[in-house]
Amino acid sequence: MKVLIVDDEKHVREAIRYFVPWEKYDVAEIFEATNGQEAMEIILEQQPAVVFTDMRMPLMDGAELLEWIHRYSPYTKTIVISGYQDFSYVKPAIVYGGIDYLLKPLNSKQLISAAERAFQKWEEEKRERERAFRQNIQLNVLRPLYWDKKLSELVGGTVSFQELEEALVEELGLPRNAKHCRMAVLSLQSSGGLLLKKFRGDIQLTSFVLVNVCNEMVSLRKQGFAFRYWQEGADVAVLFWNRAEEAEDRLLEINESLKQAYGISLDIGLSRILPFPGGISDAFTQARQSLAERNLLLKGKRIHEYLEGSSEAGRAGGAKADDLMEKLGISLLSCDSDKIVRSFDDWADFIAGTGVLTISGLREWEDRLRNVLTKWRQECDGSEEVSKAEAPFPSAIEAGGDFSFERWKDGLKSYIMEMFGESKLSRSSDSRIVREIRDYLDRNYQQEITLQHIADRFFLSRENVSRKFKQVTGENLSDYLTNLRIDKAKELLQNSDMRLSRISELIGYEDEKYFSRVFKKATGLTPREYRKREEET
């Protein structure tokens, strides 16, 4: 179970952390936010069971946050903790189903009682949701599966429209006078697979949710029907058979709904308007092709309409491309970092200058680049066999799902320079970099330090920092930092009468309880037990 505490006053957040017996309710993680906007991001990412929130906060106040939670995270229970008892503050908590409204300063018994009610309510509703979900599956699983299969066969041409016509009219609302159709295709792998990741890689659940979102916009308006495509090449398809000219508007609404709920928009392929029912298969082919061959350089465009000849655009080829790729390979063999950067920039700028980059074109460029890098590693390291299955190239997908050419270019450049740095010709620099990292940790262990912070400071990727540190020292960076802090804590416990909270702050831990858990895990003793043992010896 996860919990979120939202308050712009640090001492209030700390008080809530201190008073509530989290272990009793199996709370695994506690997150904090200082305003409603931060809270929204955490809720979308972590889906906490309970949210403790203040009412008056900067950027977005508690009333707005409660309304947003009620709409987009309805299972989350809320407890309001406020310094005001005006009805204008109390009303949102009542309207949006808050468990309790507590006044500051906090009363520990009231806080614990409210938390217990919230946890119990969440558990009860969770069990009821699971029961209803199982029952709903048992009652309704056959109907959507049937239509997924039949509509997949229809667009694939393995079943005739005449065989399905009556059922389509009676069950899905197909008008008997339909004359035109249009198809849309949505892939769970588009936008970097971010929607799929939101559901922990569960393809069945993700496609089920996506179909439901689509049908809220399409089927309920009797414009068509969305279904999970059973064959290879698409995840979700939408067949429009009524008011096909409005298809793009419906798809924009689908993306807006996904963006509001999950912070993600999907790329969608859309066919031309074709005769119904004879054009169904062609419409599906067009929609699939327009998605696969979309121009990645058109940033912000998520609905991709079919264009004749689009499959020929964005291919990696031509004498100029061959020449630039050859120059990049030569610059790598020269072991001159400046030449490598210049030749890489020339190659990447040539791609941007074409004005068109499709998915297939992108993969072809990356395959050719990987071949060059594989050949270079083979010659550089003197290995008889060098696997082409190197680490994957960095992601070029931004937070909202857009492809970023700049991110792709910068990521590949960093990838190449890291490979260059790992070659036999420059490995001697690793020990120096790791020594600098260790020196930095030794001087700044009392500060908040993350792996990303170290990576940014030393101009390396997170993965490269971890790998280099482990290779040179034989120890994980996080373990080194923890052991360093524990050693400093031991010195302070042995040689001072400082309170544990002060020692915790001095070695980089704001939470005394967390410091105690880390210390016991490392030494087998709590800080108090350690201090007492040292005093007795």
UniProtKB/TrEMBL annotation:
Gene Ontology molecular function, alphabetical: DNA-binding transcription factor activity; sequence-specific DNA binding
Q: Which residues carry this modification: 4-aspartylphosphate?
A: 54
Q: Which domain of life is it from?
A: Bacteria
Alphabetically list the UniProt keywords.
DNA-binding, Phosphoprotein, Transcription, Transcription regulation
Please name the Gene3D superfamilies in this protein's record: 3.40.50.2300, Homeodomain-like
Q: Name one GO biological process term.
A: phosphorelay signal transduction system
The name under which this protein is listed is Response regulator
